[in-house]
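Could someone model FE2/S2 (inorganic) cluster with this protein?
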Amino acid sequence: MKSNTQLLAQVIEFIGYEADLLDHKGYQEWLSLWTESGLYIVPADLNEMDYLNTLNLAMDDADMRRMRVARLENGESVSAISVGDTVRMMSRVRVLEAGDDLVIARCAMTLNELRHGKLVTYPANVEYSLKPSADGFKLEQKVVKLLHADGFLRTVSFIF
Amino acid sequence: MSELIDMQNISLKAAEMVEEGRVHKDLYSDPAIFEEELDKVFNNTWVFVGHASEVPEAGSFKTAYIGRQPVILSRDRKMNLHVLQNRCRHRGATVCEARKGKTKAFTCPYHGWGYGLDGSLRALPKPEEYDGVFDKSELPLESLRVETYQGMVFATFRDDIEPLEDFLGGAKKWIDLFMKQGGGYPVKVLGEHRFNFPGNWKIQLENTTDAYHFPIVHKSFVTSLDDATADIFDFLDGEGFVEDLGNGHSVMVMIPQLVDLEEDLDQPIPARFEKLAQELRNEGKTEDEVKKLVRAAHGTGFNLNLFPNVSCSMAFFRVLRPVSVGETEIQHVALGGEGAPAPFNRKRMRLHEHFQGPMGFGTPDDGEAWERVQKGSMAGNDGWILVNRGMNNLHQSKDGNVAGSVCSETGMRGAYRQYKKMMAAGEEK
Ligand code: FES
Ligand SMILES: [Fe+2]
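Reply:
Sure, complex below.
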């Protein structure tokens, strides 16, 4: 087991890398960051932890992630075509659990989207379950807890 | 005096902006018309506020809106439903801001007046100064008239309009069919998605029975389906239809073979539901139950639009709330079965997530189209929106209603006819 600073640095690097891929629409590379059993979750109800038995905004297994990426890339979705760029700030990274098989970390995110000339901002807490592997981490679970999941969101044609 | 005359001109304008087959684009963008709609439409008819399963127990409540007015749907100790104006009778603060929950009383946060689940004023701090001023029984939270149909709760400010069932009229048959998707269990709300779009509420109202847009706007959704399911969603050349049910309500049948979910139970299980079927078998369900639940899991093959603010749309309720002339809030309410096997309800939620809500594969593309309608309606000083598709190709339905092909604009014309009637009310002096 590594020292905490070393681990934290690796986690921060991974989170930054993933964010960079998503902001620059490197979706195929993003897909390869996942374990086959991994789940990408955006809860609709922040008080619920039983994601499988709860309605979420997104609850993607491997198939749904591939389909979601295909939708964003294949040019058939009018909202995906007209989505502008996103810029996300990842900060306040903290390692919550540092097991040998699973590292759990949490950070703050502010995602900014320019949409039809207007700036839309999405603050969120993001929770990562990371599987250490020979070449870094794989995503086992990512939960994006949007600050205004409880309110009325704009529609989303990108990946948080 | 001149103000009064202006108001009347606007009123006449809104009703005159609706013709059979076209509506004027200013109906989407004139703030004065919007204000008038809240008064003449939303404050004057039955408005959907929730489903009974959202307030299951004594003390359960949820908050909602009727047009611009905040209300609370509550269930009292005797299990009666109430819709209360969310306005303290002292100085007017809202007495409840939670989306939903359970409580014994609604206590105003300002000076502490406490109200019962039926709205009655129960207690207030230091009451002496009110001695001889008023009696508590005079100041309950104001109640609206409430009626339900198949668990759908509607309220109205009007004591003199027709009973809910008369208002729903021809739509009742379709609500009955819609509720069969519980698969033998009572239909229950499983959760909801909430989003808004920068556009007028009537753009959403039109959309529920607009099949014409489906293959265009939802191409990326259809691509994400297996071939058999994609075929089901290729319904424009099929036997579907749109029927005007009166009072602004309409039904669009896209997939006729899924109108009655209790028929054709011997159909083979589609690939999309094979995993669900296996999970149900693992739970010890008989093959008959499995088939019934799998068929119900699809949702119905039709969209039912109930004027003015709710639709029963395949597998969910779509509830709209007009916020301002150019902003609308929408709830996509996911439905399952009360007491139904967990794999069934899970599958229903995954299907909902796939298409609906702000991150679904369908809704963001609808939202983009609606936003474009709002923006485009600003072009030019004068202009009309067409709702005349299929106007000369109508027939009489089995129930004796006017009907057109599945991608006709028959439903929209029905909704606008009701709108026009309500907006013109009080003008014939
Ligand atoms: S405003 Fe409610 S107690 Fe005063
Ligand atoms: Fe649509």
